[in-house]
Design brief:
Layout (H helix, E strand, L loop, with lengths): L45 H5 L2 H14 L5 H4 L2 E10 L2 E8 L4 E5 H7 L1 H10 L4 H34 L13 H22 L2 E3 L2 E3 L3 H11 L3 H15 L3 E3 L11 E2 L2 E7 L5 E7 L18 H14 L21 E4 L11 E4 L12
Parallel strand pairs: 7-10
Antiparallel strand pairs: 1-2, 2-3, 4-5, 6-11, 8-9, 10-11
């Protein structure tokens, strides 16, 4: 800190228990008083002429006190915090030292000496409704950071002393962007090879994913099981009047939404091949439509079993084939037919019945 005195004798600042005694610094930008009668060859030192020998001895003594191990202020350490007060709007702490001395200091100064002790004192004591929020936020953050640092130090020490192998040339740690780029590359490679390597099998038989797979699997097996399953499903839908077939260039009105169709393939336990045509109802805007679906509870079925047993009734189970398409749909949906529909492939069809997958089909 630059100190300028009007008098020629400098004032040496006294030492505090928290900071070493400061040494007087002379600014190099201060104008030097030049004697007009002096020679250019005059080697007199302006600093030496300004200060006496006693001043330099005092400065040297202060510097030596900083590095003197026997200096009393260097051995003085904070023991505990007694209390606090507010003086001119500044929070001060009453600190007790190991030497027995007790002094008042601003909280900022005590933080530089022992921040952990200050944080613990703030969390335990009430500093007032305004100061509590500010100082306790800092105290919690500091103690959390301290605990995290200690955990990392313990973890690193364990790894150092318990390692059984030593690799003299460890790999450089990759950056986050490099790791993300490599993961994206791996995902792209997996997606590119998914159609070739990841196949679904049921009971040892391959399950197709599209019409091309059906033709390939049936050709390799020498039968038409999957083609027959698809034709059976399409014939049932046509028989129940599920579609209103239009020409390929037909353009529906603006109130209709487009929905893609796809088949779901399954192999039952009796090795029966089954195909089910469904809609991608998740891509249809359901606003203004009722999406409520009634489902029977298991407790209701068990209650009916108890009633049948008590009344001596016979329980008969049955399955209704193509149950959904027995009802009309409440949605305005059109689609384009695929190769599974034979001669009607690539035609536009208006969905009339409650086809599987639509939002309101389960009503």
């Amino acid at each position: 800190m630059l100190v300028q005195q009007a008098a020629t004798t400098p004032v040496i600042p006294t030492a505090s228990p928290f900071a070493p005694p400061s040494v007087l610094m002379v600014s190099q930008t201060q104008p030097e008083v030049e004697d007009v009668d002096s020679d250019d060859e005059d080697d007199s030192d302006p600093i030496a002429s300004r200060y006496s020998t006693a001043d330099f001895d005092s400065m040297a003594s202060n510097v030596n006190n900083v590095f003197d191990p026997d200096n009393q202020c260097n051995r003085e350490e904070l023991d505990y915090i007694i209390e606090h007060r507010f003086l001119a709007g500044v929070l001060e702490l009453k600190v007790s030292y190991t030497t027995g001395s007790i002094k008042w200091h601003p909280i900022k100064l005590v933080k530089d000496v022992d921040a952990q002790a200050v944080a613990n004192y703030i969390l335990i004591n009430d500093l007032g409704p305004i100061s509590n929020e500010q100082h306790r936020r800092w105290a919690r953050a500091f103690l959390r950071s301290l605990r995290r640092t200690l955990r990392r130090l313990r973890r690193s020490s364990v790894l150092i002393f318990e390692a059984t192998t030593f690799y003299p040339n460890p790999k450089k740690r990759r950056s986050r962007h490099a790791a993300q780029a490599e993961q994206a590359k791996d995902r792209a490679e997996d997606k590119a090879t998914e159609g070739k390597s990841k196949r679904t099998f049921k009971y040892g038989l391959k399950v197709p994913k599209n019409w091309k797979d059906i033709l390939r699997i049936d050709t390799a097996a020498g039968d038409r099981k999957w083609q027959d399953a698809v034709e059976k499903e399409v014939a049932a839908l046509v028989m129940h009047g599920c579609f209103d077939f239009k020409s390929p260039d037909y353009k529906p009105s603006g109130e209709f939404q487009y929905c893609r169709l796809h088949f779901v393939y399954e192999i039952n336990a009796d090795l029966c091949h089954k195909a089910r045509l469904v809609c991608d109802g998740s891509r249809v805007d359901p606003r203004g439509l009722s999406t409520r679906a009634t489902v029977v509870k298991g407790i209701s079925v068990r209650l009916l079993d108890l009633i049948a047993e008590a009344q001596g009734l016979q329980v008969i189970c049955g399955d209704i084939g193509n149950a959904f398409i027995q009802a009309n749909t409440n949605e305005n949906i059109f689609t384009r037919l695929g190769s599974e529909f034979g001669d009607r492939a690539n035609s536009i069809a208006i969905i009339v019945r409650a086809l599987y997958g639509l939002t309101t089909s389960a009503e």
